[in-house]
Design goal:
Strand content of chain B: under 5%
Largest sheet of chain A: none
Helix content of chain A: over 70%
Radius of gyration of chain B: 26 Å
Shape of chain A: globular
CATH superfamily of one domain in chain A: MetI-like
Shape of chain B: flat
CATH topology of one domain in chain A: MetI-like fold
CATH class of chain B: Mainly Alpha
Radius of gyration of chain A: 25 Å
Distance between the termini of chain A: 13 Å
Number of helices of chain A: 14
Order of helices and strands of chain A: HHHHHHHHHHHHHH
CATH topology of chain B: MetI-like fold
CATH architecture of one domain in chain A: Orthogonal Bundle
CATH architecture of chain B: Orthogonal Bundle
Strand content of chain A: under 5%
Structural class of chain A: mainly alpha
Number of strands of chain A: 0
Largest sheet of chain B: none
Oligomer: heterodimer
Helix content of chain B: over 70%
Number of domains of chain B: 1
Order of helices and strands of chain B: HHHHHHHHHHH
CATH class of one domain in chain A: Mainly Alpha
Chain lengths: 318, 303
């Protein structure tokens, strides 16, 4: 176990280093430099000061080394566009917003999805089953983007039940201000509902035909008990393999939803930074998001072993 | 006592014994037969056919130019003159939607081709060379996959600018990894399988093994891969254009039309409604056809 964790950790560092390097040189290839728009009209002297201030007067390789050194120290750079704004500060302000949106979507979506999946599997071949299947195909085929716009138009625009845009802040950052969060959460949760309902239904139907279910039935166990103790437990494995991806994706933010509802999350800022050609922010955010993504995948990998003892450690030799 | 001369052969010849009375059905004929029995998949196929026709002839159907402005007729709703109404510059939305859908479909199809070609070659190289080449190439895939793919796509768009070429590169740059993995797995599995070994022992040329065994197995994987990828690409393209990172006006795609529609959605919802409906129909038809294809092509799912 210990050796596996250490190996995975070292691999993670290497991957991060490669991502940072690749992103740095990719952004170097962006035509023009981020300061020219502001600095071109200034006198030569001020321009030089400005370039010096952001370190853009040095050659590429030197800047690469400096950037890498700073990142290793935990300093992910400062905005070229908004003076004084750092990536660290941004993450501190905006990550909670994206995280709350993601967590709410997942909790609601996965719960409802699993319930619908169970319903469809138990009531196989009935109206309930067909409704769930049709519903999930429909949900998968309507892009987030259109769902968001539709909900916004109907429930905020026409019916005025909820505010059109915005997000709770201050004391209500993590809890409260629910009326702002209803529509974005609904928009995002539909894809989770569809995915998990389909997944659990397929996997439950696989398990139903297993011999141990027949054994349990012939022992005279009640139907509810068979479903809870035998079918559900065993059919959760595909769900468990899907979950880490969902967790990782939900923390990195929902770009489209944040953009539709003007939610000040990481995703929205990333898009703003890209449109402003704010290279240092883009670089810092990319590396930090990659870090988050990898760490979440890593942790869930470890949790697997705790949840399902049948999964052996990949590093362990038999 | 029974002796062989007491038995007589009646109505039986050597040829008849060996003749095959039912027509042989190849894998593809069988798949097509199964697909035809699936009404949902056939309906999607017909809808897709209609969409393709509309994308080709749609912009010319009403005789309005999709670029020329006609200010007196701006922001109209659906009418006999303008079937889907007009936008804020008086341009016929019906013509614009089909031009946009043409761009979206073309981008998705070309990106899918790129993904399949790159993925297949990469996967085949991994499986063929094995050893350290395989490890190295796999590590590259892992690095690409350790970033959310939307981030990579956005980064590439930023570097290459807002144009069609950039869009294609950005969309396919992360997508091929999945194809490569599947192809690698498939070829590795086939290389070890008994029937390929048997074919080798019987003296089949490498060309025959590739054409008879590798290609048919891989084509079904690739078709399924494409049927998942196309709606995904259409959606991502629309999303990026909506965020202002994809194509920009005057180029139009469904995403551009949706983002233009959103700006006026409070007053003229029809300008948002029609592009959204067309996008949903395209994505849904591809998804349902993909489901049908999976049932028809994947032997493991057959009952």
């Amino acid at each position: 176990m210990g050796r596996y964790i250490v190996r995975r950790f070292l691999e993670m560092l290497l991957t991060l280093f490669l991502i940072a390097t690749a992103t740095f040189f990719l952004l170097e290839a962006v035509p023009g430099d981020p300061l020219s728009q502001r600095a071109d009209k200034l006198p030569v002297q001020s321009r030089e000061v400005m370039y010096k201030r952001y370190g853009l007067d040095k050659p590429v390789m030197e800047r690469y080394l400096i950037t890498m050194k700073n990142m290793a120290k935990g300093d992910f750079g400062e905005s070229f566009v908004y003076a004084g704004q750092t990536v660290g500060g941004l993450i501190h302000d905006r990550l909670p917003v994206s995280a709350r949106l993601g967590i709410q979507q997942m909790l609601l979506g996965v719960t409802v999805g699993l319930l619908l999946g169970i319903l469809a599997a138990i009531k196989r071949g009935t109206i309930a089953d067909y409704t769930v299947v049709a519903f999930s195909v429909l949900l998968i085929s309507i892009p987030h983007l259109i769902f968001g716009l539709m909900l916004q138009k109907i429930f905020a625009g026409n019916l005025r039940w909820f505010p059109t845009i915005g997000w709770p802040s201050g004391d209500e950052l993590w809890f409260g201000g629910w009326k702002y969060t209803v529509l974005p959460t609904l928009t995002g949760c539909f894809s989770y509902i569809a995915t998990y309902a389909r997944l659990l239904k397929t996997s439950m139907l696989d398990v139903v035909n297993q011999d141990y279910v027949l054994t349990a039935e012939s022992k005279g166990l009640s139907r509810g008990r068979i479903i809870r103790k035998h079918i559900l437990r065993n059919s959760f494995i595909p769900v468990m393999t899907q979950l880490p991806m969902s967790v990782a994706m939900c923390i990195t933010g929902s770009f489209f939803i944040e953009s539709i509802f003007a939610i000040p999350g990481i995703g929205q800022y990333y898009v703003t930074a890209v449109n402003n050609q704010d290279l240092s922010i883009v670089l810092g955010e990319t590396v930090l998001l990659a870090l988050l993504y990898i760490v979440v995948l890593f942790i869930t990998d470890l949790l697997y072993v705790v949840v399902d003892p049948r999964i052996s450690m990949p590093g362990r030799k038999k | 006592m029974l002796t062989p001369d007491k038995f007589k052969v009646i109505g039986y010849t050597e040829e008849e014994a060996n003749s095959i009375c039912r027509p042989t059905i190849s894998y593809w004929q069988d798949a097509w037969r199964r697909l035809r029995k699936n009404p949902v998949a056939m309906a999607s196929l017909i809808i897709l056919g209609l969409l393709v026709i509309m994308v080709i002839i749609g912009p010319n159907l009403r005789g309005y130019d999709y670029i020329a402005m006609n200010i007196p007729d701006k922001n109209q709703g659906a009418s006999a003159k303008y079937w889907f109404g007009t936008d804020n510059m008086g341009r016929d939305l019906f013509s614009r939607i089909w031009v946009g859908a043409r761009a979206s479909l073309a981008i998705a199809l070309v990106a899918t081709m790129l993904k399949l070609v790159v993925g297949t070659l990469y996967g085949a190289a991994m499986a063929h060379f094995g050893g350290w080449v395989d490890d190295l190439l796999m590590r590259i895939i892992e690095v690409i996959n350790s970033l959310p793919s939307l981030l990579v796509t956005i980064l590439i768009m930023m570097v290459l600018g807002n144009n069609l070429f950039a869009m294609l590169v950005a969309l396919s740059i992360t997508a091929w990894c999945n194809t490569a993995r599947q192809v690698r797995g498939m070829i590795k599995q086939l290389k070890e399988s008994e029937y390929v070994y048997a074919a080798e022992v019987l003296g089949a040329s490498p060309m025959r093994i590739i054409l008879k065994h590798y290609v048919p197995n891989m084509i079904s994987i690739l078709i399924l891969d494409a049927s998942v990828a196309i709606p995904q690409f259409i959606f991502t393209e629309a999303g990026l254009s909506f965020l202002g990172i994809g194509l920009k006006t005057p180029a139009i795609s469904l995403g551009v039309l949706i983002s233009l529609g959103q700006q006026t959605m409070d007053f003229y919802p029809s300008q948002l409604f029609y592009p959204c409906v067309v996008l949903c129909v395209i994505v849904m038809a591809f998804n349902l056809l993909g489901d049908g294809l999976r049932n028809a092509l994947d032997p493991r799912l057959r009952q």
